[in-house]
Structure formats: structure tokens, C-alpha cells
Amino acid sequence: MLAGVVKVKTALALRLHFKGMRFPIDVILVCIRWYVAYPLSYRHLEEMMEERGVSVDHSSINRWAIRFLPLVEKMARKHKRPVGGSWRMDETYIKVKGVWKYLYRAVDKQGKTVDFLLTAKRDMVSAKRFFDKAMGAHGDPDKVAMDKSGANKAAIDAINASRDVPIVVRQVKYLNNIVEQDHRAIKRVTSPMLNFKSFRAAHCVLAGVELMHMIRKGQFAINGTDAMSFADQFYALAAQVRPV
Q1: How far apart are CA 35 and CA 168, in angstroms?
Q2: In which band, very low, low, confident or very high, does the pLDDT at 26 lie, cut at 50, 70 and 90?
Q3: Rounded mean pLDDT of 101-128?
Q4: Rounded mean pLDDT of 215-224?
Q5: What angle, rounded to 10 degrees, do the helices at 58-76 and 230-238 form?
Q6: Comparing C-alpha atoms, which of 145, 224, 218, 221 is closest to residue 178?
Q7: What's the whole-model pTM score?
Q8: pLDDT band with cut points at 50, 70 and 90 for residue 6
Q9: Is the CB of residue 123 less than 8 Å from the CB of residue 100?
Q10: How many CB atoms lie within 10 A of CB 177?
Q11: b vs e for 7-27, b when ≥16 Cβ sit within 10 Å of the residue's Cβ?
């Protein structure tokens, strides 16, 4: 049915907790990977699968993405390579139900993704939540470059207030070119998605988009990674997920 596209062991179905699903695991994983790897809509995928002899409604693919992508991204974090101590932080816009929300993101000076966080507001509290998440996963940076946003600076100031050695903040625009350019890879994939219908859906799908972007940047260390295609790395990371 999908010969030559992907081969995944039957045992993987148990690990990703596919009990009760009508479709085989290979169909589900191919659909959700294509969705977050390429500029496609759910209806595009419905047509593509139909051409391959698989009749699946676009709403089913939507449910798969929301259910499984956050699980794969969460497990992938355990295999993520360390990032550098010099971060470039910025936020970009993501539309949810016709309203702009904010995707906070940071990369190191080599362009490797540090972390990301979707928030409803763009303020000091949201920026601090992002830094707390990123620092909890990767440790404290030595310095952070950001734009002239007062909210972002206030968040770092609040963090520095409890530190003996403060994080150096550099608000120099050209230093942030790396993260601003990196936003484009995310927006290229999300643009054809034509507006997320809920904040939860946006949160779940963006986790998958960011995951595929990090895979392309070689940010995961799993057995045989160097010999794997980007697709095989996604499936290998999916195989690490345990039932919830």
C-alpha cells in the first residue's frame, strides 16, 4: 500500500499507543511527518494518500497530528545534542482562529534550535516563561542577544535579579539575524496550514514542525543517526515513545 515510503516494525504500534486506531502505523506516521516537514495542508495530504490507495479524511490526519506529534517531540528532547551558551532570542507571529499569537524561539550562534514556546500574549511574563523553559532544558546561557523589546529585556532582568553572575544581554539587531532567518523555515511550513483552529492544535503541530526543523539541523543523537535520512530519524525518535 505504501511500499517504498516507510517500513516500521509492528512493535512500534505498541510504543506509540495506537490501540483502537483504524489505520496502520505506517500510514499515520507518514501523514504526520509529511504535514510538519513540507508546506502542505490536511486536504493536500488527503489527496496524496488517495493517490496511493489510502482513503483517509483530512480530519483524521488532523487528530493524528494533535495526538502524536507532541509525544514524539517530547521524547526527542531526551536525545537532543547540547546547544551553545550564546543565544539569539526573538518571537514571531502565528495566527490562531484569526488572531495573532506569539511563538518565542531561540537559537545558538551556530543556528541550532535552543527552544520554542507558543504564547497568547507578548509580554514580560510570556518571555520569562520561555526563558524558564529553555533554561530548564539546556542550562543557563552565558549571553543572550535580542531585539529592543522591553518585555524581553525585563524578563532577563527578572532572572538576573536572583543570580550572582548575570546573563549578559546584547540588544544589537544584526546579532539577531540568525534567529530571524531561522523563523522563515517555520513559517514556510505553517503558511499553507491556513490558520490553526485552536491554541492546542497550534501548540501540538508546532512541536512537530520544530522537531523536523531540528532533525534537518542534525540536533539529535540516536544510534545510527549519521547514516539515517531525515525521515528515518523521525521514525526512530517515534519508536522511543512509550504508552501514556
Answers
A1: 38
A2: confident
A3: 97
A4: 88
A5: 80
A6: 145
A7: 0.88
A8: very low
A9: no
A10: 12
A11: ebeeebbebbebeebebbbbb
The per-residue pLDDT of the chain, averaged, comes to: 88
Find, among 159, 183, 205, the residue nearest to 32 by Cα.
Answer: 205
What is the pairing mode between strands 99-108 and 113-119?
antiparallel
Question: What radius of gyration do the chain's Cα atoms show?
Answer: 19
Lowest mean pLDDT among 113-117, 129-133, 234-238: 234-238
Do 64 and 147 form a contact (C-beta atoms < 8 A)? no
Please write the tens of the pLDDT for every residue from 69-92. Answer: 999 999 899 999 999 999 999 999
Question: How distant, in Å, are the alpha carbons of 75, 104, 133, 154 from that of 64?
Answer: 17, 25, 26, 38
Residue 5 CA to residue 15 CA, distance in Å, equals 21
Q: How far apart are the first and last CA of the chain?
A: 29
Helix (H) or strand (E) holding 231: helix 230-238
Containing 137, the helix (H) or strand (E) segment is helix 124-138
